Amino acid sequence: MKRNHIPAALFAATAFGTAVLTACGNANAPQTIGSADGPTEITVSDENDANIGIIGGADGPTAIYVTDGSDTPDAETMLAAKGLELISRMNNLARSNEYISTATSSQPILDQIELIAAADYTSPEEIFVIDGSGFAADTTDFVRGYIREKAIRSIPSMLNALDGAQTLSAAAILQVDETFRCNAPGHTVIYLYAYRAAYSVMVTYSPGEDGTVAATASFVKFSSTEPATISHHVAEAIGSVIDSTDITVRSIDTAQQ
After folding, report:
1. Looking at the DSSP assignment, which residues form a beta bridge with residue 23?
2. Which of 78, 180, 219, 253 is least buried, going by the fewest C-beta atoms within 10 A?
3. What distance in Å separates the CA atoms of residue 218 and residue 198, rounded to the nearest whole number?
4. CA 204, CA 130: separation in Å to the nearest integer?
5. By the 8 A CB rule, do 214 and 144 touch?
6. Which pLDDT tens digit goes with each residue over 140-166?
């Protein structure tokens, strides 16, 4: 009996439709500090200096919510780490015969997925943050701002389409996303994970409501395996799509990931 397969484009659009809400950063349990017999002296310190203040009184305890800045990674570090988590999930999907068999029977697409599965995506050669004033949402014109946001998020698909339908479909099948809370920039940013392999990875982070961020990770095929060349190619593509020359590409320390 002939086996039915879900079309790649439809599968990619529906397979990961449910958002998972997680936290960005360490969630330390709140503690209550104070007493009913007098004020409590609290010392609050950060990386630069220390300040002493009197908090509380004889009328009851004072609830103090304390976060240790030295132990809580900043948003950039957390987003970089989140991207690595998503890459690991995509890699697992690429190596899952059970998953791939439900997605496609097309040999050209399977060839691209096998190419991805054969590579090591544990540690990227370099991680780039791609941003700039051109990424900022246009709050004065909803339609223009919406078009720009859609264009930025479509960059991975646009780049894959340049290599052919089989590349676009393979990346779409393996694409994953997640929604979580994080103090991220107020506009979409792209993290590029460059690997010395046929495919590298792009993760777009788009702000949502109530402090949430929507992340979408995609394998992207490039003709070069040189990180600097890959990042330059992505920046050029983004600038062309959103008609802006103000695109910044910044490498971040992968040793912290």
Report:
1. 181
2. 253
3. 13
4. 10
5. no
6. 778 887 888 888 889 999 999 999 999
Nearest CA to 69 out of 183, 215, 178, 180 is that of: 183
DSSP string over 212-254 = EEEEEEEEEE-S---HHHHHHHHHHHHHHHHT-S--EEEEE-G
Length of the chain: 257
Tell me the sheet residues that pair with 186.
none
CA distance 63 to 82: 32
Rg of the chain over all Cα atoms, to the nearest angstrom: 22
Cα-based distances in Å from 257 to 90, 153, 201, 217, 228: 18, 24, 16, 17, 20
Residue 183's Cβ-side half-sphere holds a number of Cα atoms within 13 Å equal to 7
Q: Residue 24: what pLDDT?
A: 62
Q: Which residue has the tokens 């062309």?
A: 240
Q: Is 161 exposed, middle or buried (0-12, 13-18, 19+ CB in 10 A)?
A: middle
pTM of the model: 0.72
Is 125 within 8 Å of 179 (Cβ atoms)? no
Token match 């990227």: residue?
124
Q: Residue 74 — φ and ψ, nearest 5°?
A: -75, 170
Burial class (CB in 10 A: 0-12, 13-18, 19+), 110: middle
